[in-house]
# Entry
Amino acid sequence: MEILIKTITFLFLLGLILSPIFILIKVNKFNVRFKFIIYLIIGIITSAFIMFAFAWWSNKSNLILLKHYGYNIDGMNETEFYEKVLPENMDKVKNIETSIMGIGWPLKAIMSFPFYIPYLFVVFIIYSSVKKLKILNE
# Structure
């Protein structure tokens, strides 16, 4: 179960890293005037979708893991919460339980987005620099 959850999480992370590159390649294939603005708009919309899905999956996967380890989410006290949890999984369950407390997944996605937007600019700058170097070397 953990391998499947880690794989899906890795795919979301890979989508966040590679989507601006693919968007920039597609935008450059079209003959449009304001490539940067179009890239930025499409990149923000696409990455916002992926970021919200990633934040949702992070929360949902923790709940799936808790259920997998035998944690009773509907319990009324600690005895009912940890009733079916095996002793060797107790530390994992307590760590996961602690990680889901606090702010919800929509706020996590919104708060992480300002840290992601500069990545869109970095990808554009690096792609433009590489493209100009290719043109100069020819």
User: Anything to note?
Assistant: The first helix runs from residue 2 to 29. Helices lie at 2-29, 35-68, 78-81, 90-100, 105-137.
